[in-house]
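Incident log, support desk, overnight shift.

02:14 A customer reports that sequence design results differ from what the structure should imply. Their input is reproduced verbatim below. On-call engineer (initials T.W.) acknowledged and began investigating.
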């Protein structure tokens, strides 16, 4: 059992009532709900079924993580290692493609998107990444979608529902793919420009790397006002993969200093930190005191789009859990937790359960019951 799951099963001590602090005004006109990999708490992530559920449940935008096939097609997978989210291991014809690669400085063993053509990937079926929490009822039913298919699907949904639905694509492992002759940025812009929908609908390109976002800012200029850029932030001690590859010293912790945030604002519109960087959990797993990050980011001219709110006990602060099972989904646990983060002035957030995120945003002022 992972340490995270074990922690969730400990007897929960009483948590103090979180401090009520003066809210920081959001920079955005309204807080946006992003369907993280679709509605990945309810359907296998990065499938059209997951995106459909997210849209039906009120997501303002959906998030396709992007990797590349051998023949240069952008497809939606959280990682280029596809063994954890598809049934590739059950295909004997692909057994010989299991290998170990160095991805962003770390050894990873499995099957990789860049070793498969699109036609080969289409023979695979998606499976649940977290079966111990979310079960396997939907395994084997859905294909790996291309970015083109996702855009076409989103455009059709937007027309049918009479509302605009944004896309928040993440470029995964850009430096790695470019080194292997599969540059992603040019491919992404080409796809976005090939569809009438993404020439005008809100698009927010995100990455944990820096160089690709800087290059995109220069390429986009002022010619594509519907496209914004989001600098994702990983764990404080880690480095962006492109910085690591170049032998640089910059860490994510340094990027979140006031000076670091001002530098990000030169090329990006928002930062995307883990929500624990905004309100951390204390040693007992309870909500702690908010950090100055939202205030500092807003002062630098950046919005704050946090990730990732999930509905299961194991991901919640102790005061919002029910029982000891990591997989239990408290009726309003995630909603109550999100509402505390909304008070910090965040401008958008990613969630595996967009219906709960929608309820949190639409519920009005924080009440004593939320605490």
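02:41 Re-run completed on a clean worker. Output:
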């Amino acid at each position: 059992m992972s340490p995270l799951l074990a922690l969730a099963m400990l007897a929960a001590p009483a948590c103090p009532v979180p401090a009520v602090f003066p809210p920081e005004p959001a920079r955005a006109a309204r807080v946006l709900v992003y369907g993280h990999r679709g509605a990945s708490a309810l359907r296998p992530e990065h499938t059209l079924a997951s995106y459909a559920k997210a849209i039906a449940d009120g997501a303002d935008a959906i998030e396709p993580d992007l990797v590349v096939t051998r023949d240069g097609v952008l497809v939606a997978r959280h990682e280029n290692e596809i063994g954890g989210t598809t049934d590739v291991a059950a295909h004997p014809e692909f057994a010989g493609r299991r290998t170990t690669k160095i991805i962003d400085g770390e050894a990873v063993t499995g099957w990789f998107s860049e070793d498969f053509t699109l036609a080969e990937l289409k023979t695979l079926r998606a499976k649940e990444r977290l079966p111990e929490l979310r079960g396997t009822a939907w395994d084997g039913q859905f294909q790996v979608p291309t970015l083109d298919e996702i855009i076409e699907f989103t455009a059709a949904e937007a027309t049918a529902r009479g509302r605009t639905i944004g896309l928040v694509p993440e470029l995964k492992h850009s430096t790695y793919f470019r080194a292997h002759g599969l540059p992603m940025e040019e491919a992404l812009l080409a796809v976005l420009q090939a569809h009438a929908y993404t020439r005008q609908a809100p698009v927010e390109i995100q990455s944990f790397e820096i160089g690709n976002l800087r290059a995109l800012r220069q390429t986009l200029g002022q010619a594509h006002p519907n496209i914004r850029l989001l600098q994702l932030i990983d764990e404080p001690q880690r480095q962006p993969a492109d910085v690591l590859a170049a032998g640089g010293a910059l860490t994510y912790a340094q990027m979140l200093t006031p000076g670091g945030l001002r530098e990000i604002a030169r090329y990006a519109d928002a930062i995307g930190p883990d929500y624990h960087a905004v309100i951390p959990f204390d040693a007992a797993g309870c909500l702690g005191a908010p950090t100055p990050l939202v205030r500092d980011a807003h002062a630098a001219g950046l919005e704050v789009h946090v990730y990732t709110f999930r509905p299961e006990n194991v991901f919640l602060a102790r005061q919002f859990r029910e029982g000891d099972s990591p997989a239990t989904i408290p009726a309003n646990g995630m909603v109550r937790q999100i509402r505390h983060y909304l008070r910090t002035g965040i401008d958008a957030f990613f969630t595996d359960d967009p219906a709960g995120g929608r309820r949190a945003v639409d519920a009005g002022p924080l009440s004593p019951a939320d605490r």
